[in-house]
Amino acid sequence: MTKLLIVDDEKSVRYAFQRTFGDVYDIITAEDGVQGLEAVESAGPDIVLMDIRMPRLDGLTALKRLHKQRPALPVIMMTAYADSATAMRAMQEGAFDYIVKPFDNDDLRLVIDKAEAAVRVRGTLRSECKPEARDLPLTDEFIVGTSSVMLEVCKQIGLVAAADLPVLITGETGVGKELAARAIYQYSGHHQQGLMVVNCAALPDTLVESELFGYEPGAFTGAGKQRVGRFEQCDGGTIFLDEIGELSLPAQAKILRVVQEGTFERLGGGRPLLTDVRIIAATNRNLSEMVRHGTFRGDLLHRINVFDLQIPPLRERLADLPPLVTYFIRRFGSNVSPPVTGIGAEALDLLSNYDWPGNIRQLENVIRRAVILTKTGVIDRADCLIEDHEPVASDFTMALNQRIDKLVAQGESRPYHQLLAEMETMMIDKALSLTQGNQVRAAELLGINRMTLRKKILLKK
């Protein structure tokens, strides 16, 4: 009979395991992490199910010690307080899986069955991943969500982060592929060597080779001195190739050589150079379909798609919408006066019944705009300008068309530039008004840096 060790400070949880699974498994219990570690030594369980929040010794610390001492012992982490960072850290520390209370008994049984299968073959299993615990500082952007699909994504991030394998992140525009890439980097062994982000869609074909691999003096007209490319700058670290599906076939061939051999040549140079980088790529396109149509190299796809991380669209994880809204309000709401502190029920209901074709990025923009529009400190339905909000959209379009007609009638030689200048001035004035002249807060509200805002203000004087 398989021996299960249940480590949980709640007596009711330990009793529930005894009552539900006592006739199927040999159940052993412990009240905290200290007792759990002692029980592993004395009782030799086949599988451990351990809570995260416990007195004396928490579950993650106990997991770290267990994984060092007995890396083949499957440890399933349990928690009633699910969050993405904890899920990633649990998997990074070596957890077999991560489940959220209250859990369905059938689902739990499936997880235990998988762990039993691992136990049967553990003599042949070897792990090359040696993760180290680290307390990561929170930045102003991180993965938010506790839905089951996002927790699964976070578990996968925790698993692959320390494995030093190429990763392909797929998903629609705006789902947060770059955030996932940064999370992989932060939890990896390369986190001190730097992360280089390259937007492949922004690189013209004529500049791809010089940007990525650099060039020697005289390689082409205007190449007066040596330039070190992105792969060389990133040696020892991680390079994130965002929207890799936008690269031309010749550019793909050059990337393939780096992936296969770890070598490249600067433009105009004849000496192969070595680089040791971890490659994370992302795309919103179907690369397999592109391979069939001859627009993406199959050999490159096989090389970068060692681990496929799929980020679900927001419409498939609407349970995460309230915490996302709260996060964006906290992030942008303090930059206006009076501060925005919440959202009304009708507004939240409107957002929850929208399909979000632009995903998280669209939601962020809607909340950022609502923070500016609200007059009460609490966002209401009228402040949420999304595509279904026809009256506001049509009013804006009408006003815009009228201004364009007026500029043309006045004989304005550059109506496009004039209109952009007017709108820019209006946005800057509005942001400064909302922040009572605070340029730092106004710049953040507009999504630009303070120096850029100062230059624009000076130019308009």
Brief overview:
The protein is an alpha/beta fold and 461 residues long. It has helices at residues 11-21, 33-43, 59-69, 84-92, 105-120, 148-161, 177-186, 205-213, 230-233, 249-261, 287-292, 298-304, 321-332, 345-352, 359-373, 390-409, 415-434, 439-446, 450-460, and strands spanning 3-7, 26-30, 47-51, 75-79, 97-100, 167-170, 195-199, 214-215, 227-228, 238-242, 263-264, 273-274, 278-283, 307-310, 342-343, 378-379.
Structure description:
By secondary structure, the protein is of the alpha/beta class. The chain has helices at residues 11-21, 33-43, 59-69, 84-92, 105-120, 148-161, 177-186, 205-213, 230-233, 249-261, 287-292, 298-304, 321-332, 345-352, 359-373, 390-409, 415-434, 439-446, 450-460; strands at 3-7, 26-30, 47-51, 75-79, 97-100, 167-170, 195-199, 214-215, 227-228, 238-242, 263-264, 273-274, 278-283, 307-310, 342-343, 378-379. Strands 2-1-3-4-5 form a five-stranded parallel β-sheet, with helices on both faces. A five-stranded parallel β-sheet has the order 7-10-13-6-14. It has a two-stranded antiparallel ribbon with strand order 8-9. A hairpin with an 8-residue loop joins strand 11 and strand 12.
